[in-house]
Amino acid sequence: MMEALGCAAITTTRTPMRTHIDAIVVPLQHAEAIDAALRAVVPHAVVDCLVLAWHYDHLFYQSHAHPKRYHHRARELWLTCAAGRLHKELDTLQALVFDKLDSIVRASSLVEMVNGLMRPYRKSCKGQITQEAFNLIMFDHNPHRDKSGKRQGKAPVALLTGKP
Predict the structure, then answer these.
(1) What distance in Å separates the CA atoms of residue 131 and residue 104, rounded to the nearest whole number?
(2) In this predicted model, what pLDDT tens digit does every residue of 19-76 receive, in sequence order?
């Protein structure tokens, strides 16, 4: 559809996107593989309930007081729905689904974290940042341990390498 417009600006933008399309859809393929693996083990309706429970559990960590209560109630509602449809042990299947979904790399949140980290540096150098300056920022950031959240007490470099 973009090609049919015949706009030169769109064509120059579309060409680099097309060359990277395989890399762009990798997270989607990973998510589809996880979905297929879960649906082979867990009933479809239960997977849907547990995925929604995971979603609200994930939002719970990012929220403040009022939305946090809402996300907690929504998570509990979907867990109750899954328990009602399952009629057997929910804890193991919940742990399986949550672990699989936590393994998906959410690129946008990673990019936003890096952008937020670099924002003060970019402002000080008027938007022009060299690779050397970027390497220094990452060298400073990677060994620092998180103070709160799911990754409390862990450093980004330790999560990446698996070594403390």
Answers:
(1) 28
(2) 767 766 777 788 889 999 999 988 888 999 999 999 998 888 777 778 888 989 999 9
Do 164 and 158 meet the contact criterion of CB atoms below 8 Å apart? yes
Q: How far apart are CA 128 and CA 124, in angstroms?
A: 9
Q: At 78, list the tokens.
A: 């979907």
Taking alpha carbons only, the member of 58, 50, 56 closest to residue 149 is 58
* Burial call 125-147: b when 16+ CB within 10 Å, e when fewer: eeeeeeeeeeeebeeeeeeeeee
pTM of the full structure: 0.57
Question: Cα separation of 56 and 71, whole Å?
Answer: 5
With beta carbons less than 8 A apart as the criterion, state whether 116 and 61 touch. Answer: no
Got the DSSP string for 71-110?
HHHHHHHHHHHHHHHH-S--HHHHHHHHHHHHTS--HHHH
* C-alpha distances in Å from residue 120, one per residue of 25, 60, 83, 128, 132: 31, 28, 47, 12, 16
53 is written with which tokens? 């429970």
Q: Across residues 93-119, what is the average pLDDT?
A: 74
φ/ψ of 74, rounded to 5, equals -65, -40
